Amino acid sequence: MDATSSPPLTDHSTIAVELAGITKRFPGVVANHDIHLTVRKGTVHALVGENGAGKSTLMKILYGMQKPDEGTIAVAGAQVTFGSPADAIARGIGMVHQHFMLADNLTVLENVVLGSEKLYGIGGGARKKIKEISDRYGLNVRPDVLVEDLGVAERQRVEILKVLYRGASTLILDEPTAVLVPQEVDALFDNLRELKSEGLSVIFISHKLGEVLSVADDITVIRRGTTVGTAVPSETTPRQLAEMMVGSELPTPETAESTVTDRAVIEVKGLTVYASGGASMGVEAEPVGPGSLVEAGGEVKKVLDDVTFTIHAGEVMGIAGVEGNGQTELIDALIGTKNADSGTIAFLGEDITPWPTRKRRESGVGYIPEDRHRQGLLLEAPLWENRILGHVTEAPNAKGVWLNPKGAQADTRRIVEEYDVRTPGIDVTAASLSGGNQQKLIVGREMSHSPKFLIAAHPTRGVDVGAQAQIWDRIREARREGLAVLLISADLDELIGLSDTLRVIYDGKLVADANPATITPEELGSAMTGAATGHLEHVENGEEAAAESAPEDEAR
C-alpha cells in the first residue's frame, strides 16, 4: 500500500479519467479537499472510504451533477468542464446509481430508450442496438419484459445496458453488489471483465472490501474528504484496507455466547398474504378476494404462504432469500402497514394481528426499513424532525399530547454523537447526508426507544466497515438485554455472523433452516435460489423447525 496520494500519470493514451486537486465546499463542511484520482483504460478502479468520506460528492462532480470549487477533470487526456450529466454522458461518462432509476411500468426497451430516442429511434433500430450490447457484454437482458417483473440483478444489468446504450466508455457503479446474492455477484463481475476486455473502464464504489480486492485492478482510498493513498489488490488484505479507510487499527471481534431465552416475544402462525391489494404506510388493508393476481391454475397467488415462526427474547432470527420472495410482505404484515389475509401475530403473548402500526410501535416494535428514502426518512426535513418519525407520541419527542421540539433536538444531538453521524448540524436536511449516515441516524432513532422486538431490514446497507461493526455491536448489546430481532439482509456474512437461528425463504415459504455456525455464504446463496445443500434442514412450510430458536442452541 502507498500511504500518499498518487501522482498523475503522464501517458494520457492509457488514462480514461483523471481528477486532479478536486475541492468542493458546502456551508459548514468541506466535502472534498485536493482529491486525486486516475483511472486507467480497461480497468476496474475501486474507490473506497468511510461514510461521509466524500465518495458520492466526488462522483457527482465527475458525472456533472456538481461543479468543483477547485481542481480539474480530464477525459482521455483532454481537460473538460461539466455543467450537467448530459455533458458527462456526451464525453462517455455513465453512472449506475445505488437506487435504480427505472420506471417499473415500462418495458426494458422503453426504459433504455427513454430520453435517448434520437440515438437509434424507438423501434427496430433501438431493439437491434440493445441486443448487440447485451450479447457483446453478456448482459442477457430481455427488451420486452416489464421492469416490475425483473429481479434486482436483472434491473442492475438494465441500468448498465442503459449507460452503454448512450455510449459510455467509463462507468461509475455505486454499491452495485449491495442487494445481490453471491451467484449474482459472480455474474456481475463476469460482466465487468467483459467490459474491461473491450477497453471500457469502471469506477467501482463499495463497502464490501473482499469484493473490492477480488475485482479491482487499482484502489484509491479517501478519508475525511481527501485522498490518503492507493492500494494494490494483490498485496492488500481487507483488514489493511479497512484500517487505511478509518486511519487506525480495527478491534478484533470477540466471540459471544448465546443469549437466547425461552421467553417468546413474537409468535407468527400461518401468516398468508395474497398478491395485489393491501395498504401502504399505515393505511388499513382490505383482504384480497377472488379476481386478483392469479396463477396458471386459476388460484390467487400467495406472496407469503403459511409462514410460522417464533422469536425469543435475546434471539436474532435471520431470514435469507433473494429479493422478491416474500420478505417485504412479511415486514409489512409484522409492522402493520399491510393486513395479512390469514394467520396470527402475537407479541409478548397478546394477539396484535388487528393492531394498527402506531399501536405496535408504541408497544415496543422497532423498525429499520429496507428503503430508507421511501420508508425511513423525510429527505427535505431537518435531522431533528426525522428523529421524531415513528415515535411522535413518545418521549423525548412529546410531552403529554404536545410535541417537544427541544427534547427531540437534544436527543438528535446525542444520536449524532453516539452513532458518529457525520453532519455539520441537526438542522441540515436528511437529503444532505450520505446514505450511510442516513442509515446511522435511522438505527440510532430506533435503538433509542429500547424496543422489545426489532425488525431490521438491511440494517447496514450502504454503510462502511466501521459503522457496520458499530451497528452490529448495538444489536448484540440490545440482544444481551433481551431484544428479539428479525434480521433480513442481502449481506450473507451479516446474516451468518449475527443470527442465532437462520431460515431460508423461497417463493413466499420458509423452506429450510441453516446452522449459522456451519453454513457458508456460498451454500446459503445456493439455498436462496432453490438449490439443495447438505448443511440445511428442509422443513414443511408452516411447521416449526426442530431446532428453531432453542435456548440451548450451541453458543456461537
From TrEMBL:
UniProt name for this protein: ABC transporter ATP-binding protein
InterPro entries in the cross-refs: AAA+_ATPase, ABC_carbohydrate_import_ATPase, ABC_transporter-like_ATP-bd, ABC_transporter-like_CS, P-loop_NTPase
Membrane-spanning parts: none
Keyword Nuclease: no
Top-level taxon of the source organism: Bacteria
Alphabetical list of PANTHER family matching this protein: CARBOHYDRATE TRANSPORT ATP-BINDING PROTEIN MG119-RELATED (PTHR43790), GALACTOFURANOSE TRANSPORTER ATP-BINDING PROTEIN YTFR (PTHR43790:SF9)
Coiled coil feature spans: none
Annotated stretches, region: Disordered: 533-556
Bias (Acidic residues) ranges: 542-556
